[in-house]
From TrEMBL:
<dbReference type="InterPro" id="IPR058240">
    <property type="entry name" value="rSAM_sf"/>
</dbReference>
<feature type="binding site">
    <location>
        <begin position="28"/>
        <end position="30"/>
    </location>
    <ligand>
        <name>substrate</name>
    </ligand>
</feature>
<comment type="similarity">
    <text>Belongs to the radical SAM superfamily. 7-carboxy-7-deazaguanine synthase family.</text>
</comment>
<dbReference type="GO" id="GO:0008616">
    <property type="term" value="P:tRNA queuosine(34) biosynthetic process"/>
</dbReference>
<keyword id="KW-0408">Iron</keyword>
<feature type="binding site">
    <location>
        <position position="72"/>
    </location>
    <ligand>
        <name>Mg(2+)</name>
    </ligand>
</feature>
<dbReference type="GO" id="GO:0000287">
    <property type="term" value="F:magnesium ion binding"/>
</dbReference>
<protein>
    <recommendedName>
        <fullName>7-carboxy-7-deazaguanine synthase</fullName>
        <ecNumber>4.3.99.3</ecNumber>
    </recommendedName>
</protein>
<keyword id="KW-0949">S-adenosyl-L-methionine</keyword>
<keyword id="KW-0671">Queuosine biosynthesis</keyword>
<keyword id="KW-0004">4Fe-4S</keyword>
<feature type="binding site">
    <location>
        <position position="121"/>
    </location>
    <ligand>
        <name>S-adenosyl-L-methionine</name>
    </ligand>
</feature>
<feature type="binding site">
    <location>
        <position position="70"/>
    </location>
    <ligand>
        <name>[4Fe-4S] cluster</name>
    </ligand>
</feature>
<keyword id="KW-0411">Iron-sulfur</keyword>
<keyword id="KW-0456">Lyase</keyword>
<dbReference type="InterPro" id="IPR007197">
    <property type="entry name" value="rSAM"/>
</dbReference>
<dbReference type="InterPro" id="IPR024924">
    <property type="entry name" value="7-CO-7-deazaguanine_synth-like"/>
</dbReference>
Amino acid sequence: MTGKRAILPTEITPAGERVGVADLFYSFQGEGVNLGRRALFVRLMRCNLTCGYSRMPRRPNTPAVGAMVCDTEYTWNTAKHDLEAAPTMSAAEIWDALVRLDPATGDPSLAPVGLVVVSGGEPLLHRGTVTALARRATALGKALEIETNATINPGTELIAAGARFNAGLKLASSAVPYSKRVKPQVIRQLQASGQARWKFVVTSPDDVREIADLQQQFGLTDVWLSPEGTSVRVVADRMRWLADVALTRGWNLTTRQHVLIWGDERGR
Ligand SMILES: Nc1nc2[nH]cc(C(=O)O)c2c(=O)[nH]1
Ligand code: SF4
Ligand SMILES: [Mg+2]
């Protein structure tokens, strides 16, 4: 026993506290409006959802039941991974690490990286840290995007800091209960901010009907479809039938460029 109190999956990290960091890397933004732009990534630990499972698995071999299974279980699945093994960092340390990843830091003849992507897990569990990162990015003229599941209030300070939200609302295909994955108040705040784009990971035609219902219910603008998949074949097959769906319904379609290039390699 470490004597440490167990952290609940929905607990927000107090501002100023160090947070678990799963990955820091330099790549292209692989999805969405900034697809193909070079970006500095930080992936934070912990998630309040359990995509692929209806609740936190008890055993490492608990089978997934949803069609949409999380591709970063190492950030939250305590049955399979030791979350305590991840290093903890302050916002300042994360920022310094991101700056070191920018090749322009060592070679001023290169163009500096203009985009920071904060992902997880669910990064809004650590909104104090994310807000500090967003303020630094904005002060330096860099854009900052947050890959969020849109179930946690981002807070007015993060919105004011100029962050953009790639809001990936989860569908029934995730097996997560509706009351956990759809938080009307959070959805409305993100939509009202004018700083959110709605990204839906699609596995089947059932998902499409659900997306249309959510769009209508909450007046979602700027809807994006993203093919579920961690291999070239699955991503390409899904994009082939999603293309007509997106064009017909007035939605955008992104691919997952990092999957096309690197498959499901971590930290790419
Ligand atoms: N290259 C790259 N782009 C990404 N965009 C969103 C990512 C994520 O995992 O949230 C991601 C990722 O893991 N890699
Ligand atoms: S919300 Fe994202 S990180 Fe959390 S379980 Fe679902 S897919 Fe994984
Ligand atoms: Mg991902």
